[in-house]
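[Q] Does anyone have a clean structure-token version of this?
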Amino acid sequence: MQNHNFKISYEVNVASLSGHLFQVSLQIEHPEETGQILRLPAWIPGSYMIRDFAKNIVTISAQDPSGLPLIVEKIDKQSWQIQPCIGRLTIDYSVYAFDLSVRGAYINDEMAFFNGTNMFLAVQGQTEQACAVHLIKPKDSALDHWQVATTMPTTQQATHEFGDFWASNYQELIDHPVLLGEFDILPFSTPHHDFELILAGGHQADTERMVQDLQKICQHHLTFFGDAPPFKTYQFITLLTDNAFGGLEHISSTALMYSRNSLPDINDRQIMPDGYQVFLSLCSHEFFHTWHVKRIKPLGLADASLSTEAYTEQLWIYEGFTSYFDDLSLLRCGLIDQTAYLKIVAQSITRLIRNQGRFKQSITESSFDAWTKFYKQDEGAINHIVSYYNKGAILAMCLDLLIRKKSYGQSSLDDVMAYLWQQHGKTAIATTKDVVQKICREQLHLDMDDFFTCALYTTQELPFTALLQDFGVKAQLYSRLSLDDKGGTANNEIPSPASKIDFGAPLKAQEIGAKVLQVSQDSAAYRSGVQVHDIIIALGLWQISKENLQKQLDRLAPGEQVALTLLRDKKVKTLLFTAEVAKVDTVFLEVVDDSLIAKWLSP
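[A] Here you go.
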């Protein structure tokens, strides 16, 4: 074990690739005399769900300074008490790591990734102590090229090498994800700050373009908040797979998962592929969190215990505002144009108005119930809950427009963010649930209480249509052009809504037929008795696929009834389907006054 100058030291070794096992050795110089208690977090900050990481500890043992074994007693699902001893206490334990996610720990033959919440037992009574981490390079010769990616502090001269790292306390220790393995290291910088884009898992991407675009985003966020955050180096640690999506913010890095197939290649230089735009938005979102949730924090989550849930109704501020600024920043950076941005906004509004759950759950209830409802969604979620990301972003847009309107263009949501940073981020004073209302009232001198009451505590519709109209944008509704239409279609491509027939359930293509993923309440599919997991195989006399269902539906007249044949639990069933005119639940945003929209979107 290295780093003996620290009172607490961890040693991490990749013990088995095929068994997906880490081996960790923890040394405590001065354990509790009555018996040291150790705990592993039950959840990770930024992901509001109890995950019980301790379930992945496979074996655990302890010994005193002379090497004699000590009794280890498990006292609850995530805590152990060690037999009293005098002098240095050593605990050895193995951790199963096969959760390929931004919140987990994972080992395969190409890489080993972990978050500290999965790996490092907390020493009760000493979590404020500085601690050391020694990363051992695997002895397998096939892994000679493995490197290290983490922003955990180190005194080593060579970057990306195995060796000694440290953290000021346990909270900081678990806020630095670690990647070991083969990966691309793509450095870039802004004045006074260094960045690295880490790509693991293999790719064929245009990395030159990616670095240039990320540099613009990072510079935008640094300028937006004004004061440099307390980090010198920031990493975008990206785990690439065939089809994945995810991001989790940390103090000076982010862990991302993304589809390698959605990254740009050299032939995409003249366009912005949809998949790449989403990747940039994800990076923008997580980097924005460096200020807004990692340093500006809501009361309830600041210094929260990681052993049980920590409730807040403020996620509409932290995830909603961030979801608004992530795409808006791409426009401000010049990475997308106004048309592309309005398409993104139209798709967000479309997603909201197709969600029947918005009539049953307020956005503050959505935040408070994140632990049980948002993070544990089932097939009925579209009908029962609303997303504080999606609705939060539309709410933030409405708030931005309303501030601009009421202040006659003198203030905006940018000013709210500036006050949040100055009064709460820099001072480390957690925000109360009415913090935004107070800023609008006391700093911006705007009376917006009626808006906040309706937007936060009721299920009334947000006033996006009227507010967009005030800024030269007309929200037009049309019926979707296909089952995959997400909204934002150009105005001249929109057909008459009366020419479309509604189904009401998103589908997944199957070798035969199409599988039902969700069933929207108050839809034709819902009223016909279609259920989640049904496989639709025929409409009338005609075989159905995901690709031809809408065409077959459009051959029906409103009110016409036809047999709908499906497989349910491998049994053939026939339902009576009644054709209904498709809902106008898809949004296109049309600019009707360039001078007015400039008051919203121009720098």
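[Q] Thanks! Anything notable?
[A] The chain has a mean pLDDT of 95.
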